[in-house]
Structure formats: C-alpha cells, structure tokens
Amino acid sequence: MWPAFGSILVGLALLVWSADRFVEGATSFARHLGVSTMIIGITVVGFGTSAPEILVSVIAVLEDTPDLAIGNALGSNIANIGLILGVTALITPLPIAKITFKREYPLLIFATGVMSWCLYDGELDTVDGYLLLTLLGLMLWYLVRSHQLEANTNLDENKLDRGQDTSFLASAGWLVLGLILLVGSSKLLVWGATEVAHSFGISELIIGLTIVALGTSLPELAASIASVRKGEPDLAIGNVIGSNLFNSLAVIGIPAMITRFNIDSLAVTRDLPVVIVLTFLLYGLSRFPAASRSLSRLKGLWLLSAFVIYQLYLYYGVMTGTP
C-alpha cells in the first residue's frame, strides 16, 4: 500500500506544480503569438486536455465498445461545466468578457445543437463524422482569425508584453511539458487512489463513480484553478469552451469517421439532455444579471450542485437497476 500512498503524494505535488508551469507557458505563448489567452485556452489547452478523451474514443470504437466513446464525450462535457467551472468559480468568481457572449458562447451552443442532432436518430455514420469535424475546423479558424484581428488593434501593447516575457521557445517548452505532466500526474494520482480504495474493500462501482470520474477531469480542473490564481480567468473559460467543442465535435466525430455504430438510447434520453441543460445554464448564469456578467461563487455552487445531483442519479440508477 505504501507505493500507492507515495504515488498519491507525488501525483498531487506534480499536478499542482505542472498546472502552474502550464498556465505560465500558455499565457506567455499567447503573448508571443499576439493572441489572447482565451484563444490559447480554446485551442491549445482545450485540445491538449481533450486529447486523452479522443484517444479513448478511438480505442473504444476499434474494440467495438462505442457506448464508451459516447459516454466519454457527454460525461466530459458535463464535468467540464458542472465540476470544473463550478469548483473554479467557488474559489474565485470568474468575470466574463462581453465579446464572449457574442462569439464563444454562441459557437458552443451551436456545436452542442449539431452534436445533439447527429445523436438524436440513435446512430452515427461517416456523414455525421464529416459534418462534425468540418464544423470544428471552421469554428477554430473563425476563432483564431477573429482573435488575431483583435490583437492587431493593440499591437503596441502586445509588443510591450512580449518584451517582458520569457522567450518563445521557453514558453512553448513549458506549455508542452506542463501539459504532459498534468496528464501524467493525474494518471499517477488515480492509480494510487484506486489501489488504496481496493485495499479497503471499496467496490469497483464506487471507485469508477468517484476516483476515476474525478481523475479524468483533473487536468482541466488543475489548469482552470491555476489560471484564476494567476489572474487569467479567460484561460479557465477558454479551457472549458475549447474542451467541450473538441468533445462534441472531435471525440464523437472521429469515431464516426472510422465506422458506423448505434448509440445506447440512454445516452440520448438521459445524458444528452443534461449536456444541453448545463450548456444553457452556463450561458444564463454568465449573462444575467446584465449588470454583473460573471460566474459568482453562488453561481458556481449551482453548477457544482447540478453535477453532484447528476452523479447521484447515475449512482441510484446503477444500484437499483433503473435507467
């Protein structure tokens, strides 16, 4: 058991340290590229933290377990909004830029709608895959282009920031190294916690619903908390928006490109509506009241409560054998 305890301590320490280095690298990298931290959060951070989900989904389809791929995508979207933004807002209220309501949030809602339309008929095929991946490419191009145009209007300020920053190679290095250590330390932490839970006779079900479920969200959670601690709330918001875009369009789209498969009806009738409701809840809580467009601690508690209620409902369904 001692190796397991050691992996928990080492994993936790690495997770905290790598999150700080990752955020510093991401913000410095954004300044060197002349774009905002929001766009780095959506693209680099969003893709990096969603890469494990993409890999899991591809492997799941190849091993003829497509339900795992769909559950992986929907579950990650739910955790990103309810758990990650909920916990982050509880720690530090998150101000939302006015332009986010006109650009990033509508894209997130639209992507969620297209994903829902593709899943609604109960199957995914190559056409759905092409549609989802093409939409992802267009959205990323639009976001990068619009943020670059904004950055050009503040060119002098950007140059000043770059002169006070680390070198481009150092920024890129910390960004990549931080991301690798984030994912690796979370895996180490999950392994140690799982081994300790086994030693105390805790069931696989409880381990899966608690330790493993939390472990898959640790990279996004650590990066979001570190970003707000360093005064970069846009990176936390961009992380969740970007991750959900990749989950909705790539994590589901890539497996559909590989093979045609049917979808468990529960994913459509139970989990997909939760994703839709949480997406609109995030938009509503962020936008209203208009005088204070932010995610306050109270709003963060609402998001986290919604996530906990969903997890308890899943647990109840498994224990009683009902959907």
Question: What brief labels describe this structure?
Answer:
323 residues; mainly alpha; A middle domain of Talin 1; two-stranded antiparallel sheet; two-stranded antiparallel ribbon; 4 strands; 2% strand
Textual characterization of the structure:
By secondary structure, the protein is an all-alpha fold. It has a single domain, classed as NCX, central ion-binding region (A middle domain of Talin 1, Up-down Bundle), CATH 1.20.1420. It is 84% helix and 2% strand. It has helices spanning 2-33, 37-62, 66-91, 98-102, 104-120, 126-152, 155-163, 168-199, 204-215, 218-229, 233-251, 253-258, 265-287, 297-320, and strands at 94-95, 123-124, 261-262, 294-295. The strands form two sheets. It has a two-stranded antiparallel sheet with strand order 1-4. Strands 2-3 form a two-stranded antiparallel ribbon. Helix 3 (66-91) packs parallel to helix 10, helix 3 (66-91) packs parallel to helix 13 and helix 6 packs antiparallel against helix 11 (233-251). It is globular and about 55 Å long. The two termini are 36 Å apart. 44% of the residues are buried. The model is unreliable at 155-164 (pLDDT under 50).
Summary?
This protein has 323 residues and is mostly helical. The chain is built from 14 helices and 4 strands.
